[in-house]
Amino acid sequence: MALKTEEMVLNMGPQHPSTHGVLRLEVELDGELVVNVKPHIGYLHRCFEKHAEAMNYNQVVPYTDRLDYLASMYNSFGYAVAVERLLGIQVPERVDYIRVIMGELQRIASHLVAVGTYGVDIGAFTPFLYGFRDREKILTLFEMTCGARLLYNYNWVGGLSHDLHPDFVPMTREFLKYFKGSLVEFNNLLSFNKIFIERTANVGVLPLDTAVNYGITGPNLRASGMKWDLRKNDPYSVYDRFDFEIPVGRGEKGTTGDCWDRYYVRIREMEESVKIIEQALDQLPDGDIQSAIPKRIKPPVGSVYARVENPKGELGYFIVSDGSANPFRLKVRGPSFVNLAVLGELCKGHLVADIIAILGSIDIVLGEVDR
Amino acid sequence: MYNLLNNLIGNEYVAAVIAAALPLFVFILPFALAAVLLERKVSAFMQDRLGPNRTGYRGLLQTVADILKLIQKEDITATDADKKLFNLAPVLVFAGSYAAFAAIPFSGAYIGSNIDLGMFFILAISSIVVAGILMGGWASNNKYSLLGAMRSAAQIISYEIPTALVVLSLVLVTGTLSLSKISEQQTAYFWNWNILGGAGLGFSKLLLIPFMIVGFVIIYISTLAEVNRTPFDIPEAESELVAGFHTEYSGMKFAMFFLAEYANMFAVSAIVATLFFGGYQSPFGYLGNTLHISWLVPLEQFFWFTVKGMFFVLVQMWLRWTLPRLRVDQLMTVCWKYLIPYAFVNLIIVGLITLL
Prior knowledge:
The structure holds two protein chains of two kinds.
Chain A: E1 8-12, E2 24-30, E3 33-40, H1 48-52, H2 57-65, H3 72-87, H4 93-122, H5 126-146, E4 155-156, E5 159-160, H6 168-191, H7 194-200, H8 208-214, H9 219-223, H10 230-233, H11 259-283, E6 302-310, E7 313-321, E8 329-333, H12 335-340, H13 343-347, H14 352-362, H15 366-370
Helix pairs in contact in A: 2-3, 3-4, 4-5, 4-11, 4-14, 5-6, 6-11, 11-14
Chain B: H1 2-9, H2 12-46, H3 62-72, H4 83-99, H5 118-125, H6 128-139, H7 143-174, H8 179-185, H9 203-226, H10 238-241, H11 251-276, H12 287-291, H13 296-320, H14 328-355
Helix pairs in contact in B: 1-2, 2-11, 2-13, 3-11, 4-6, 4-11, 6-7, 7-9, 7-14, 9-11, 9-14, 11-13
C-alpha cells in the first residue's frame, strides 16, 4: 500500500534571504520537488506611474532612479531619451557620450551585483564581496561626478546635471584596466568552478520560443540564444558609433538557456561594456552639457514610446502628452516585471534549491517589479 | 587521567565528573571561542574585509561579547512548537558532539576514556546528533526547519558509510580500533604516520601510501559532510532554508547548536589527524626526550595535537569561503556513486596489501 502523501505549501518570503527583496513565492512542494511556484508581488508598490502625472517632466527624473535602483543611471537615461523624442530635440553630442559612458559603467555595476548575489544564492559568499569591491570603484566615479552613490538624478531632460570631473577620464581608464584583470579572477573563482557549473548547468532551461512568448528581454533572452540587443537592433543615443559584440548563450556547459548561460552572458556583457566605454572615452567630444530648452517643458500633444537596453532588459517609457507641463500618462515597461513572469514555468519539476538558482539567474529588482 | 584523579580525590564519582568536564572547560569552550573569531577573521582576510576589530584588541573579545549577548537574549519557543522536543534537541546535538571527545586522545597523558573500541564509539555516538537535528527540525513546526532536518538526516547517515569504510581499511593496517593505540603506533617521526603507510619499514608500506592518501581524501570529504560544512552545508543552506533546522532557535539554545558545530569541526579534524597524521605524535621527535624532562613530552604532544587539529579546521574554513554549495541530490550522488565505491575498492586493496 502506498503511503498517503500530500503536497506542502511553502511561503518563501517576503522576508527571505534569497528572494532579492520583498518578493513572496508561494511554492507547492512534493517532498523537495517543486510542483508550482506563484510569485506574489506588490510589497514595494509606490504608485510611480500615477505619481508622475502630478509632476512636471523634470521632476519625474528622480523617481525613475528608484525603479531599478541598481541601474539608476540607465533608468533616467531611458526617460530622458523618451522625453527628448517627444520634444523632438537633439542633445549636444557630449551629453550623449557621457550618458553612454555612465550607462555602461552602470551596466557593469548592475551585473556585478547580479553575478555576485548569484554566487551567494548558490552558496559561495566570497565572489559577492569581490563584486561589491569592484562596484565600489564605479560608485566612486559616480559620486565624483554627481555627488550621489545610488540615486543620481543625473540624466536630465535635454542634458546632464553636472559635467564630468577633470579626473574622471583618467580614473575611469584606470578602473577599466584594473577591471579586466578582476573579471578573470572572478571567472576563476566562480564561473568555471565545478560545483557552480553542476548547480547551474541544465537547470531552469528557458527555450527560445517560451522566452519570446513571455516577452523576456535582456541577458535572459540572449542567454536563450537570440541576438537581440536594443543598442544594436534599435540604436538610440550614439550607440551606433561603437564596435561591440552581443554575447548570446551557447550552452557551453549544458543546454542553451540554462542558468549558467544566463549567468555567463552577464559576465561577457561586462567585457563588452568595457569595450564601449573605452571607445567612448577616446571619442569624447567637448561641448555643452545642456541643450537650450526652457526650464518648464511643455511638449506638443502626442505620445511616444522610447525603449532602451537597461542592464535587465528592455526598459520602455510610454509617455502621453496633452500639451501641459505634466505628463498626461506615463507607463513604464519594466524588464524585471516581465522577466519574473516566467519563473513558475522554469521552476516546475526542479528542487527547492533550484528555485533560488533560477530566481537569481533571472536577476530581478523589486523596485522595478512593483514600481 | 581518571585513575590519576581518582587517586588524588579518592571519590570515583567526583573524579569521573571532573574527568568528563575537563575537556569541555579546558578545551572545547576556549576552542569554540577562538574558532568563531578565527573563522570571521579568515573569511575577512579572504574577502578583502577587516573582520571584527572593535571589541577588545583587534576584535579579540568579539566572540565573548557575542556569547554574553546570546545569554541575555530571551529564550523564545514558538507557539506551536513541541516544547519538550524543542528544548531537548540542542542538548542532544551538543551531547552527541561533546561525547565524541571522550575517546579522542589529546596527548599520551590525557584521554577521556581509553576504550578499545574508541573509533567505533565515536562513529556511533556522533550519530546521536542526527536525532537531535531531526528533533529540532520537527519540533520547531517550521517548514524550513523540517526540510533542513530531513536533508541533514539523509546526509549524515549517508556519509557515515564512506567514513566507516575508510576507518575499516585503516583498522586492517593498524589492527586496532583504539585511537590511543593508533596514535602510539605512529610514534616518533612523520614517516611513521599512517598516511605514509604506517610504522615500520617494508615493501608493503610503500605500496600502501597511494591508497592511504585516497582514504584520507575520502574520509576528509565525508567528515566535511557529516559536520555540515560547505560545500555540504545543505541542512542550513541560508540562501534556501533561511537557517535550516535551527531557524526557530534563539539565545542560548542557538548558541548550543553553534557550539556543537564548532566542537564537531574540531572533533572530525582531530579524528582525521589521529587516523592519518600521527595524532598527538610529534613529526620530529620530542624536545622532552632529548632534554630528559619527562613532563614536557605530554605537553608537546598536546601542542602537536592542537596544531594538527587546527590545521584541518583551517582547511575547512578555507573551503567554506571558497566553494559554492552542492544541491541535495548531487550531494547524494557524490556519496553513493563516487565515495562509497572508491572506499570499497580502497578497502579491498588495502586488505590485499596487508596480507602480503
